[in-house]
Amino acid sequence: MLLKGEKAVDFSLFGTDLQAYRLNSYFGKKVVLVFYPGAFTSVCQKELCTFRDSLANFERLDAQILGISVDGPFANRAFKDQNSLSFPLLSDLGGEVSRFYGGVHEDFAGVKGLTVSKRAVFILDKEGKISYSWVSDDPKIEPNYSEIREQLEKI
Q1: Domain parsing of the chain, residue ranges
Q2: pLDDT tens for residues 109-128?
Q3: Which CATH superfamily is domain 12-154 in?
Q4: Which residue in the list 44, 65, 85, 120 is annotated as catalytic?
């Protein structure tokens, strides 16, 4: 897992528009990487809608949100549309990026072979260094949204 002060590892993942999104193309802005276990789950819906409802604050702080899960781009697209999410949702098929950043849950919910991203938030400064990281082993726990805002205000 990457830690505070380390340089973020670049990646390229497909979005809901089937276009590739490269992390380093966002450097120059603050970036909030939001890893979530699965589209259409109640906690993930609440979490991403909370980020959506605070989008004006993130824009004021010159921060870009990128949602990341192991869900495919079509499921993420339906989830994005259903919840009117205006930030990119990226598909980490196979979970490689999730494993590198915050980790994954194997055999999630007792389903053999089902792998999902751990719920995690990483804030990157404008140079791409990690200034904040939070990872939960319990997929029902949401991040501390006030703490995320405060961390963004500090950098």
Answers
A1: 12-154
A2: 888 988 999 999 999 999 99
A3: Glutaredoxin (3.40.30.10)
A4: 44
Q: Report whether pLDDT(1) > 80.
A: no
Nearest-angstrom CA–CA distance, 35 and 47: 10
- Known active-site residue 44: yes
pLDDT tens, residue by residue, 27-55: 999 999 999 999 999 999 999 999 999 99
In the chain, the percentage of residues whose pLDDT exceeds 90 is 90
